[in-house]
Amino acid sequence: MRTKERRLIVAFYTTHDAMAFEDYCLSRGAAGRLIPLPREISAGCGLAWSAPPGDMAALTALLAGAGIAPQHIKEMEI
Amino acid sequence: MIYLDNAATTMMKPPCVAEAVTAALTSLGNASRGAHEGALNTNRLLYRTRGKLADFFGCPKSEQVIFTNNSTEALNIAISGTLRPGDHAITTVLEHNSVLRPLYRLQRERGIDLSFVPADRRGLIDYEDFERLIRPDTRAVVCTHASNLTGNLLDIRRIGAIAARHGLLFIVDASQTAGAVPIDMVDMGISLLCFTGHKSMMGPQGTGGLLINGDIEVEPFKVGGTGVQSFLTEQPREYPTRLEAGTLNGHGIAGLSAAVDFIRRMGIDAIRAHEIKLARRFCEAVSAIPGVVTYGDFTTWERCPVVALNIGSADSALVCDALFCDYGIATRAGAHCAPLMHRALHTKAQGAVRFSFGYFNTDDDAEASIEAVCEIAERIGK
Asked: What is the total count of domains within chain A?
């Protein structure tokens, strides 16, 4: 098991939103990756976006730019 | 073999389609069933392909591109998912059984009422009939973009305008036209577009789709595993998951995606021009052969590259068999799953032999077929 670390986690209503957000972030070189949805978050999609911690404003700006309404955004240790 | 049964399926596929399927067979996991690279690669493929198809057919929302196994499944979802008990629907006699049987079933099971736009002996309809058949309880117009028997195209934009004027759903069966004729759902006023991947799209069998234009509630035809919201007892309501229970045909969809790229590269107009050139050459030559009767409207070449014919009173099955056994030409005889069209053409007993041209056919294929029809007609005439 790798050591836990703090991450900004975005949960989505649909898998389509998750894939659209990954596509948007990759096209802009934004750091992060899709991970299995942590069990402590309940969401419509089984995938979540895991981004480096700290810059919530940048993350919400990316979501707005992609036109995606997240179901949850949470900074947590995973 | 000279393959002239492209209206049934395009047997010859672009090499890039076969390559994409082969690569997918050893690289794709199960979409939405995990977050490892294998599963994510399939999610990425589905996401990109939905986008390509939305763009290709002018569907405003890519999440409303639903993958199905074929047109028949898409039509079942569209028809069963929107028509309610007591609704009235209008369709045409040009339809394939993939439209007719889902409608007949709802007639029996939900008491929906059906009206049919008739056709003349050339397979032509009167568009005013749609207006005449509309009633206060009419909910939808369901019709094909082109007859799979005659190749006649319907003016979908015109029918779409009628449906829009009366607030009706417009469900279109694009089995014969997707990939062969440009389609824009918004411009044509199409509410629900049903297509198959294995005909003019030149993709693998087992692929197809339903595209939904606008805020239309389509109830699921099948329910089951989605990989998401597992503790819900009902199917999730979000598109596309709502209508995609079970593992999708990711391998086939990889091929379909490559096929869309191929059509884009070649250009749909160039593909269409080639196919129509061959069909036109064939039609004009065989029409001059004594005893040959063609079916459909050939006053215009705004049509599909399909020529259905009979030779004298010969059984279409025997002519079809002679074409294959004596000349190696693959065609299709019989009723073509279009019972009402055959009634309108008065060919129920004889059937018809359908020659359907595709992108990979050549001038030589058309010439060899003309010669074969000529020889068979001479034999029958003796």
From this structure: 1
Domains, chain B, ranges and CATH?
Answer: 2-10+267-381 (3.90.1150.10), 15-266 (3.40.640.10)
pLDDT in tens, B95-104: 999 999 999 9
For residue A64, is it within any domain? yes
Q: Which residue among B40, B47, B236 sits closest to A20, beta carbon to beta carbon?
A: B47
Q: pLDDT tens digit string along B327-336?
A: 999 999 988 8
Average pLDDT over residues A60-67: 97
pLDDT interval class at B210 (50, 70, 90): very high
- Nearest of B118, B78, B112, B124 to residue B98 by alpha carbon: B78
Domain of A62: which CATH number? 3.30.70
Q: Is A1 helix (H, G, I), strand (E, B) or coil?
A: coil
Check: CB of residue B193 under 8 Å from CB of residue B106.
Answer: no
Which H or E element spans position B362?
A: none
Q: Is B227–A46 a contact, with Cβ atoms under 8 angstroms apart?
A: yes
Residue A1 lies in a domain: no
**Which residues, including other chains, have CB under 8 Å from residue B98's CB and lie 6 or more apart?**
B71, B72, B75, B173, B175, B337
Domain for residue A68, yes or no?
yes
DSSP letter, residue A52:
-
Q: Identify any residues that bridge with A42 across adjacent strands, giving them in sequence order.
A: none
Q: Is residue A28 part of a domain?
A: yes
Residue B54 contacts residue A30 (beta carbons within 8 Å): no
Sequence-distant (6+) residues with CB within 8 A of B142 are B75, B78, B79, B89, B90, B91, B95, B99, B103, B171, B173
Q: What residue type is B117 in one-letter code?
A: V
The closest CB to that of A14, out of B46, B48, B238, belongs to: B238
ipTM of the complex: 0.91
